[in-house]
Amino acid sequence: METIAITLDGVPVSGRQGMTILELAREVGVRIPTLCHDPSLKPVGACRVCLVEEEASRRLLASCVTPIASGMRIQTRSPAVLEARRVILQLMLANHPESCVVCDKGNRCQLRQLAAEAGIGLVDYDRMDSFVNAQEANPFLKRDLSKCVLCGKCIRADQELVVVGAMDYFQRGFQAKPGTFLDRPLEHSECTFCGTCEAICPTGALSESKPLHIGTAPQRASTVCSYCGCGCSIWAYLWEERLVRIEPKAEDSVNKATLCVRGRYGSDYLHSKDRLLNPMLRKNGELVSVSWQEALDETAARLKEIAARHGPASVGFFGSTQCTNEENYLFQKLARLGVGTPNVDNGARFQAVSGILAMQEELSISGATHPLEELEFAAVILVIGAQPLESHPVASYALKRAVKQRGAKLIYVSPLEDALSRMAEIWINPWPGSEGLILLALLRAVILLRGSRVPGWLEAQDPGDFLKRSLVDSSQVDDAARILCSSPSCALVFGKGLSCSQGGKEGVKILVRLARELNCLGVAGGGIYPLDRAANTQGACDMGTLPEFLPGYRSSGDPRCRAELAQSWGKEPPAGPGMSLPEMLEAALRGELKALYIMGENPLEVLPSYAAEALLRLEFLVVQDMFPTATCQRAHSVLPAAGFLEKEGTYTSLERRIQRIRPVLPPPGGARPDCWILSGLLKRTADLPEYEAPAEVMKEISQTVPQMRGVRYARLEGSPIFWPCTDPTASGERILLRGGAPEPQAAPDPSKLMQTNPKDPEFPFLAVEVESLFRMGSAVRSSRAGRLRDFSHQTLVFLNPYDMGRLGLGEQTQVKLLSRWGELKATALSRPEIHPGLLCVLPAAQGRGLAGLAPWGWDPASRTAQTRKAGVRLERCGG
Question: Which one of 106, 397, 505, 547 counts the least CB within 10 Å of its CB?
């Protein structure tokens, strides 16, 4: 690329062709102030604060939109520049309310900072006050457009970064302002309350509603969001040992300048009055507070005693997708080495295990094959069984940018119409649970179009039958196949709608076969992306918190793998595979499982009818958690744990990105980091020295997990590291399988996919639970996040207008969903795209969803939970 030389403030500098003056100045360390510019957005030159002087012509140029040219001589602080800047700032201030002292933005207001730098006190011009009422009806954002300087950053952030389109310029001339369609409030627009516009706004025109601290908080720390598996980097701002604000960390992050509503506004659960503060033991039928010494001694003694009396297999361990890599590693080590049981599982059993098992069998990997940023370079994207807008919003931003800004074609398979279906080239609306059948038909169509040989396992299958059961038109599948075959690069995205459907493991294997047929593995803009994961689902499974695998996905049933681990541990772990969670609960019901240790999960809330009796039959239940959950109420030992801002460790995102989380707050009361608790129990059960810090645990992980041999805490301070990282000087492999994919272990079995379930005339509707942007998992955290709870306070049920009319229901009618196991109250809304006979339930932030309406179904092949669904009837409340 051509190098261009210019002179900047008398100093010769050079830049690349196409760079603007502002970009080059920032690269060489020369500050030019701006208001409308942000490196994440396209430059527009709206504010003119960045003016510089070109010496030869004496012209003032907007540096953010002026490209450098050979021989330019630029002055950034000449008298003409400073005077022009001062005039521009005064004109802005003349139309700005004189309320800086009480402005919510405080000293974070960039207009105020620039005015102070320019020495502007009183404004020399007649005031042009704008009297606009502030809007603060929602719990997230406050809009005071009297403070707007028309920089357009909020509009560009909305349209370029998160690609929602909720905001644009409204009206023209002196009346121009950023507004929503028909100038409605944000809560009645397409806004998703991600907070990107507020974070990027240079003034108080957009600010946080009811902020906990005005201005710049005195302390901030870099860490990682604790909700979904995207692994967003955040800045946590603190004041007087309290989290007061979260902002995106753009540098070296997957999220750049964006977050979602959960990540931005949903972490105040850390300060809930509901936190567990002291360890407790059950004495005389009641939980009473005890010292940590007594709690750890008693817990270790009971686990060892039950293992000695009934055998180690009588004890089970259930770890967490919210706990760190280090904590999950110690947890499975406590199970296998401290107690000697192979029965260790984690919360991925509710979401991702079938996908992990399928990808391991097909590709010998378990995570996304590419980083999420590669989605933006795909020519075609297939999304099936996923609701990225709600489950993994930052991934959905990349999807939308690919379509809107790069012209990618989207094939979207989802039973609900949303922003992605509206921008899709093809939207396929299936009966929920039939996604695997659609993939079968799609794979067959692609193979025939490419002139390949149909494999034997697929040849006998009837695609017409697949699509009839899916309620999908065959022409849509044929059109989708043609688009996929004509593309140079395809990305395949799947979620719980596929992996947790009946035969989900086989469905994911079929998706991998489709990826092979399309040659989208190991190439730029291609890949497979599993959007079925929480904050550290990937890491929990990487660490071996699964009955099928030891750390690093080595088979727990392979003697050679156990012998390898024994070299590090000094003792061979028990032969596996052990029991999964559903098998542990069934064993408890039979009286075979006597003790269960649950860390950071709440199975009693997720599957109440299934787990309640099983937990009651245990001799000893240990619960390690932040909150007194329903499961915690049944425990014999309660160990209060620290939250994600109160401890140190690492998370691994769905794209295999390993990142540090840091302790920036002290745990409340007597709560302790999970690593500290587990280290104490390992000392008592396995006679091992206690780990001094999580860094010591990571050092051991790097010695026992082959994919992480090159990972060290010190290296995580810089650019991101992806596993596999076997070289202590490299950053790992961002794109896997560049050298080709390994041969799959076994062909998919289509017979395990969706079966036709006979309808019960008493309960004629099928209710399925859909993803919520304001809720995560069993709602333990979102129900305690005040803003999420206040905004998403209603459980909604969507149904076809025909069914609404047949039942005599109107919009917003309060209804009851009744099943054989319970009932759920909700607000009914019609959605024309929903198939007759289908109900889609959107839980509130603190709602239970379908938890009380049906026992959770389990896929026997992967021992994974199926998407929650229930046969129900619908009645009007009070009717």
Answer: 106
Closest CA to 330 of 674, 706, 774, 775: 674
Q: Please report, for residues 128, 386, 511, 753, the alpha-carbon distance to residue 499 in angstroms, rounded to integers and kept in the order given.
A: 59, 10, 10, 11
Beta carbons within 10 angstroms of residue 235's beta carbon: 16
pLDDT in tens, 270-315: 999 999 999 999 999 999 999 999 999 999 999 999 999 999 999 9
Q: Among candidates 790, 760, 750, which has minimal Cα distance to 436?
A: 750
3-state secondary structure of 724: coil
pLDDT digits (tens, 9 = 90+) for 477-500: 999 999 999 999 999 999 999 998
CB 693 within 8 A of CB 699: no
DSSP state of 278: S
Q: Rounded distance, CA 558 to CA 545, Å? A: 16
Q: Are 819 and 763 in contact (CB under 8 A)?
A: yes
* Contacts with 240 (C-beta within 8 Å, 6 or more apart), sequence order: none
Q: What are the CA-CA distances from residue 788 to residues 63, 271, 499, 508 (Å)? A: 41, 14, 27, 33
Q: Phi first, then psi: what are they for 63, rounded to 5°? A: -65, -20
CATH superfamily of 353-531: Dimethylsulfoxide Reductase, domain 2 (3.40.228.10)
Strand partners, 839: 767, 799
827 in helix, strand or coil?
strand
Neighbouring CB atoms inside 10 A of 188's CB total: 12
**Angle between the N-to-C axes of helices 463-470 and 474-485, in degrees from 0 to 180, rounded to the nearest 10:** 110
Q: What's the Cα-to-Cα distance from 402 to each of 28, 378, 840, rounded to whole Å?
A: 32, 7, 28
Q: CA-CA distance, 7 to 646, in Å (whole number)?
A: 49
Q: pLDDT digit string (tens) for 593-651?
A: 999 999 999 988 877 667 888 999 999 999 999 999 989 999 999 999 999 999 999 99
Which residue shows structure tokens 């707050």? Answer: 665
Q: By C-alpha distance, which of 416, 492, 385, 388 is closest to 162?
A: 388
- Report the topology of domain 280-349+537-722: Rossmann fold (3.40.50)
For the chain, which residues make up each domain, given as ranges?
Answer: 3-77, 101-271, 280-349+537-722, 353-531, 755-876
Q: For domain 3-77, which architecture applies?
A: Roll (3.10)
Number of H-type helices and E-type strands within the chain: 27, 37
d(CA 539, CA 322): 9
Say if CB 748 and CB 506 are below 8 A apart.
Answer: yes
